[in-house]
């Protein structure tokens, strides 16, 4: 069921409280679910205070909970599993007045697929990525490293996470579309990031299709990396 305007506004107001917003940002930037104690320590507040705000974020549909342990201890004496928090999978959007850009995008992706126009879309995406990269690099010497590319990805909502010489993205800005039409949308995403890396001046860096659970289908690494 599509949430009504009041429900969507409630999601936004849940993040207006400074500590609650800080806790949300802490949780969503971690590689794994976090406990109340970890979140409280990160913000320097009592555990009960952190728990109150975390649970409000769950009520708003921004976080989800699971049961688990934050240590490697198992079996008798390990204690009860902790409540762990992570970002909810549900997507939140607010447009006043209402708009249906997601529906339009899905219809266009389906049309591209049916017409066999994938290469035309990828060519356009690569040109747009390069244009954005050149615009972002500006007059500076264009010699981007992985850190510079990570900053560019972060500004575009990819939530990059570096692992050695490989740059992963914990979020796909096109997640809903890619789930419905992976070949078209993931191919477009790869072309877009290929152009972005080139426009930024990322000589020796390459965008590759490397899908995996809980991350974007494209990774960026040094050209000689496996």
Q: In a nutshell, what does this entry contain?
A:
With 226 residues, the protein is of the alpha+beta class. The chain has helices spanning 5-13, 18-28, 36-43, 47-59, 101-115, 118-137, 146-155, 175-180, 182-200; strands spanning 34-35, 63-68, 82-87, 160-163, 166-169, 205-209, 218-222. A hairpin with a 2-residue loop joins β4 (160-163) and β5 (166-169).
Detailed description of the structure:
By secondary structure, the chain is α+β, with helices and mostly antiparallel strands. The protein has 2 domains: 5-87, Arc Repressor Mutant, subunit A; 101-222, Muramoyl-pentapeptide Carboxypeptidase, domain 2 (2-Layer Sandwich), CATH 3.30.1380. 49% of the residues lie in helices and 14% in strands. It is built from 9 helices and 7 strands; from the N terminus they run ααβααββαααββααββ. The protein has helices spanning 5-13, 18-28, 36-43, 47-59, 101-115, 118-137, 146-155, 175-180, 182-200; strands spanning 34-35, 63-68, 82-87, 160-163, 166-169, 205-209, 218-222. The strands form 2 sheets. Strands 4-5-7-6 form a 4-stranded antiparallel beta sheet, with helices on one face. The protein has a 3-stranded antiparallel beta sheet with strand order 1-3-2. Strand 6 and strand 7 (218-222) form a beta hairpin. It is globular. The mean pLDDT is 86.
């Amino acid at each position: 069921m599509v949430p009504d305007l009041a429900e969507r506004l409630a999601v936004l107001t849940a993040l207006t409280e400074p500590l609650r917003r800080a806790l949300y940002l802490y949780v969503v930037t971690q590689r794994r679910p976090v406990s109340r104690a970890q979140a409280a320590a990160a913000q320097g507040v009592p555990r009960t205070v952190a728990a109150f705000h975390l649970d409000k974020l769950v009520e708003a549909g921004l976080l989800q909970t699971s049961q688990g342990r934050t240590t490697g201890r198992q079996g008798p004496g390990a204690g009860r599993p902790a409540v762990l928090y992570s970002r909810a999978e549900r997507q939140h959007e607010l447009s006043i007045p209402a708009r249906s850009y997601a529906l339009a995008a899905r219809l266009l992706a389906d049309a591209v697929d049916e017409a066999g126009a994938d290469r035309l879309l990828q060519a356009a995406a690569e040109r747009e990525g390069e244009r954005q990269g050149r615009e972002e690099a500006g007059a500076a010497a264009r010699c981007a490293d992985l850190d510079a590319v990570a900053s560019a990805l972060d500004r575009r909502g990819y939530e990059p996470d570096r692992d050695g010489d490989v740059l992963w993205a914990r979020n796909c800005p096109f997640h809903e579309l890619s789930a419905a039409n992976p070949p078209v949308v993931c191919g477009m995403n790869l072309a877009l990031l290929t152009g972005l890396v080139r426009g930024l001046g990322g000589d020796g860096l390459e965008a590759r299709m490397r899908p995996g659970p809980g991350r974007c289908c494209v990774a960026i690494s040094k050209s000689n990396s496996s």
